[in-house]
Sequence to fold (713 residues):
Amino acid sequence: MEIFEKSLEHLYLVFTATVFSVIVGVLLGIIAYRVKHLDKIILWLTDTLQTIPSLALLAFLMIFFGLGDLTLIIGLVLYSLLPITRNTYTGLKDVSPFLKDAAKGMGMSKMQRLLLVELPLSFPLIFVGIKIALVTSFSIAVLGVLIGAGGLGSIIYSGIQIQDVSMILKGAIPVTLMAIVFDIFMTFIEKRMIKKAKN
Amino acid sequence: MNTIIDFINRYYKEILHYTSRHIYLVFVSVAIGIVIAVPLGILLSRHKKIAEPVIAGISAFQTIPGLVLLGFSMMIFGIGIKPAIIVLSLYSLLPILRNTYTGLIGVDASLKDAAKGIGMTKNEILFKVELPLSVSTIISGIRISTIYIISWATLAGLIGAGGLGDLIWIGLSTYSKDYILAGTIPAALLALIVSNLLELLQKLITPKGLKVKR
Amino acid sequence: MKKKLMAGLLVMVFVFSVFTFSGCGNENQIIIGTKDFNESIVLGEIFAQVIEAKTDISVKRKLNLGGTFICFEAIKKGDIDLYPEYTGTGITAHLKLPVISDTEEGYNVCKDEFDKQFNIAWLDPLGFNNTYAIAVTKEIAAEYNLSKCSDLKVNNASQNISFGGEHEFFNRPGDGFDGFCDLYDVSFKGDTIKMNVALKYKAIGDNEMDATDAYTTDSEILEYELVVLEDDLGFFPPYIAAPIIKNETLLKFPELKDVLNLLSGKITNTVMTQLNYNVMIDKQSVKVVAENFLTEAGII
Fold:
């Protein structure tokens, strides 16, 4: 069934991009937190990337990476960096200074402190960033059809071309549903995490 | 450097033409959004019980990909500027609405009480206390809306509305690096400039006492 | 604990998806692409059905893949093996040569150069010439007495006529809008409107514009009762349709050549317009239209 196949394709594109944007985004967030002067630049860069119109970014990337899934994934990653990077950075910064001192007092190295104390404590906020990145990627990935990538965009695009409402819906409903489902699911987990943290 | 100068020389007239149409689309859509969303936000701040469902409803709307709504709008209203502005105005509502609402309900109750105490009418409280204190948040919402609309407006070229999207579409359909750049670079610059300008406006308008220290 | 489970689940889904979609190439399969307008889709379906009927090769369809250039990039990259192309487009858009007005010469140049430069083979022409044509509403044709393109210049008629077309038409140096306006020395009213190729006729029907670049086998010309202006100065070159296929695909499946050449000459202009009509106006499915055509033509 075409809708099923395209939906899986769409999921694959969004997931792959999110995995990479988590890796790059968290790394950038850590660097922004640790290296004194880079924080402004990194935050400015990721903010700028997100301000650029998505179609423009994808078309621009197409010049270098050609048509296809790869270009879309790169675009989605760049677009998703801001929420993840900024939340990682803020999360790390907001860890209570007492806890940071306590860790230092226990003889932890900077790396140990980061991995054992600061990152775990920031995780809820980072998770929110991942959620935002994931959910918005569903919508943007629809544009993939315009640069030769797969996903539900092609059903929507065909529907618009032949002006067939049911076909547009066949593409639009799965995308919107997936976005909403993941939003609800991840918000639920997020709330559980906050509850646990409070206890 | 030479090639960039050549490029600008060759395409500047077209770029100007499409950019002005793009700005027109964005300006009108955001203006309509403000005209609808701000009063609605004020209304919702007075009726908090329905605020959450209304905002959630419009928020769900926002998850619908732009291409879809542009397609539907085209089917109902034909091709051209009108269907595009209708959809773009709808998309501009949420950030402005949400920020107006949260801005207004965030105003310190004691300030409102004090105003009531010195005899201000409800309208006076709205215009002299609540709105001025929320204006920074509202402008932030307008800024977010505008960035979205500048982005979605590039898709409007698909349904004959013109704008920088046309240059991008011509570039994509003829695999022309020149046209793609002629469309994407101005679009990106437009978004960045407008974003920074509105952020500046926000900073200037915020009364000193309320500025959040970074 | 819950966090670890979540992470594990996500990784599993990710890995599963990667395996499902990468390296998924079926050895006994070819992929057919088409451009994003109706005629191309119908042709692609016809190719697919004749191959499925006459060979053991399994066919994957990527119909409505995108515009001319998306298809060409896809075949060069190997994302598709075969798609229907037109000689006029091959010459100006892909070979980037000046327009060739002679039908046979155009075809031969395409055949030779695509083979040499891109390792792509042009199979036999399908039998029709779908060239660009300027079409106007019948009201406009009556009002300004238009029957051929040169009439557009008479009394500067074109300046009262609004023009719109698909984005691609506005950046085709040899056979597009700018060249047309240059040769006939005309300019149209106001700004030209650009839109998706599938929406042109709706725009004319809604009176958003008066003229467009039509393809001569478009059924909408009949549906909207448009008047096609004769290209008296011969600006638009012939666009002979034929299947183009990667050489390496032919090497792998040599039977494809004869099978696809069964279509040689079988699709005339009349036939193509009729097939387009069946899909666009009679609203029959592409699959059924293709099947009916092949059966009636005695091919399957």
